């Protein structure tokens, strides 16, 4: 069986021309193109190592690749393995290549297809117990008459490794996960900032993992708040995945909230939120100085809520509107007369802000005025 696999892969050569014995099926090899440029990260020994940038020809997806020859120590000996490692643009492990010959275990038997599937599963686990151990701790302490290199492997390590291949699993996992993901993510952010077409392509991805990565880039300051990034945040705010919405809420205060276009897009999104999410938005919009018709209308419709905690956050945001409807002012006057100080104080501030005798305009007239301006 494995001879057939070797023969099949022998004809499937990568750019280096070296034969590949095993390659993860998830790697879109035929669609990846290596990009020019020098890119480096630091390994866990503090040494600078080179990585290659690969772009997906069809969707602009970003990938990172490293090829290396490293030793894996078995029982009493060390042997080199020639491997390639692929990461996605956000620094997550994607897959591996094994060059030349099969990986072997401590008893010198070859990896089976099942072993490779198990290895892939172990390498994908970012929080593997292998993270907690040093290389010297891979086996139980030496006992009288027992060589530590052949002692029983600790159960917790064995469960996180391919059977009889603890050293290989450990070595490869540490090459993939110990600091590489964070550094590769930063390389991707830097590349996106410096390459507008790549950023535009990346912004078109709808997968939650890509969107989360972009939101993290915006909130961390590693990506600019461009019109494309604003669009991503707005889409994420109405995403059914609550974890993705959480990331988007972190970025709300970075949006140009005073923009009419942004508020026009936010209005229907706000309308569909549960009261908890509405309140989160109101906290972020507390310093808003301009409130346009579309958002004002959906916010005003919530004045009928009975939750004082929510209303105390809503009223100050409504005060940002230059024109107040008579109905809104009436409701807030009623709240000012309530016996609840949590409502009374923000209602009083609202009325002081707009002036009790100030012009209370009709929102309908404002819309009419805007239409007249457009005709002119």
From TrEMBL:
InterPro entries: ARM-like, ARM-type_fold
Coiled-coil residue spans: none
Compositional bias ranges of the Basic and acidic residues kind: 356-376
Compositionally biased spans, kind Basic residues: 346-355
Region (Disordered): 339-376
Protein name: HEAT repeat domain-containing protein
Organism: Ravibacter arvi
């Amino acid at each position: 069986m494995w001879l057939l696999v070797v023969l099949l892969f022998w004809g499937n050569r990568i750019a280096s021309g070296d034969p590949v014995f095993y390659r993860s099926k998830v790697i879109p090899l035929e669609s990846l193109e290596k990009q020019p440029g020098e890119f480096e990260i630091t390994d866990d020994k503090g040494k600078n190592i080179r990585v290659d940038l690969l772009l997906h020809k069809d969707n602009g997806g970003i990938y990172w690749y490293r090829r290396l020859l490293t030793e894996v120590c078995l029982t009493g000996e060390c042997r080199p393995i020639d491997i390639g490692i692929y990461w996605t643009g956000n620094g997550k492990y994607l897959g591996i290549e094994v060059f030349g010959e099969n990986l072997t275990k401590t008893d010198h038997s070859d990896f089976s297809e099942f072993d490779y599937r198990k290895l892939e599963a172990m390498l994908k686990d970012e929080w593997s117990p292998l993270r907690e151990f040093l290389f010297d701790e891979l086996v139980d302490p030496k006992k009288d008459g027992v060589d530590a290199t052949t002692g029983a492997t600790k159960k917790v390590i064995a469960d996180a490794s391919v059977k009889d291949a603890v050293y290989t699993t450990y070595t490869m996992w540490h090459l993939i996960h110990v600091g590489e993901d964070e550094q590769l993510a930063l390389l991707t952010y830097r590349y996106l900032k410096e390459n507008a077409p790549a950023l535009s392509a990346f912004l078109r991805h709808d997968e939650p993992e890509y969107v989360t990565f972009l939101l993290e880039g915006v909130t961390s300051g590693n990506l600019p708040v461009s019109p494309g990034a604003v669009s991503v945040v707005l889409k994420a705010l109405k995403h059914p995945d609550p974890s993705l919405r959480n990331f988007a809420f972190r970025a709300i205060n970075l949006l140009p909230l005073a923009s009419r276009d942004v508020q026009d897009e936010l209005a229907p999104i706000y309308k569909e939120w549960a009261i908890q999410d509405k309140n989160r938005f109101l906290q972020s919009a507390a310093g808003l100085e301009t409130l346009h018709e579309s958002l004002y209308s959906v916010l005003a419709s919530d004045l009928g809520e009975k939750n004082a905690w929510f209303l105390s956050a809503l009223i100050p945001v409504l005060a940002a509107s230059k024109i107040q409807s008579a109905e809104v002012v009436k409701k807030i006057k009623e709240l000012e007369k309530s016996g609840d100080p949590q409502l009374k104080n923000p209602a009083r501030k609202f009325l002081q802000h707009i002036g009790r005798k100030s012009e209370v305009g009709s929102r309908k007239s404002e819309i009419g005025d805007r239409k007249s301006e457009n005709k002119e």
